[in-house]
Design goal:
With 182 residues, this protein is of the alpha/beta class. The chain is built from 7 helices and 7 strands; from the N terminus they run βαββαβααβαβααβ. Strands 1-2-7-6-3-4-5 form a 7-stranded mixed sheet, sandwiched between helices. The N and C termini lie close together (7 Å).
């Protein structure tokens, strides 16, 4: 695991910090955790939040989140942001919920003492997950690892969250080494 901290709070400092974190998050073979100079305070015992989408991309992020939650004896708040267009398609909505619940079942079995909350809010993933990050000890998200420029052009959720979330955030790449047991 690589943990990066930010000392400054000015615009230039934030841009450099976001660029360094973004680059490492897409290139690192291990999870990258970014911690701002003045993170938002959270309640003791707050859960670890994890962005999920029911695809293999979120499995390493879930593994990382559950491992940390188990070690720190806190719960996991799994959040699958549902786009508005999908919300109107009952079959697609049911499929996404089922895939997400199915992917979480393995971790529920592996970590029976970790309490799990699952939410399916309707909305864009970036503001939805940024809001959840404000009430969590850590926000964990997955990444396809396409690169910073490609991520900015394609609307990468992890890249956008690295730029906007005020609290600690971990980006865990699919296929990266050391995703479990860190």
């Amino acid at each position: 695991m690589v943990v990066l901290g930010s000392e400054g709070s000015g615009l230039f400092s934030e841009l450099v910090f976001g660029t360094v974190c973004g680059t490492l998050a897409v290139r690192s073979r291990c999870p990258v955790v970014a911690v701002r100079a003045h993170p938002q305070p959270v309640q003791p015992g707050a859960p670890i939040a994890v962005g999920v989408d029911g695809t293999p991309i979120s499995v390493p992020a879930m593994a990382f989140a559950f491992d940390l939650a188990d070690r720190h004896r806190v719960g996991v708040h799994a959040v699958h942001a549902i786009p508005g267009s999908v919300h109107r398609d009952a079959d697609e909505l049911a499929r996404r919920r089922w895939n997400t619940a199915d992917s979480l079942a393995e971790f529920a079995t592996r970590y029976p003492h970790v309490h799990i909350d699952i939410d399916f809010p309707v909305g864009d993933p970036v503001p939805t997950l940024a809001k959840v990050a404000g009430t969590s000890q850590l926000l964990v998200v997955g990444s396809r690892g396409h690169g910073v420029a490609a991520g900015l052009l394609s609307g990468s959720v992890s890249q956008a969250l690295l730029r906007t979330v005020r609290g600690p955030i971990a980006v865990v790449r699919k296929g990266g080494k050391g995703n479990q047991g860190t």
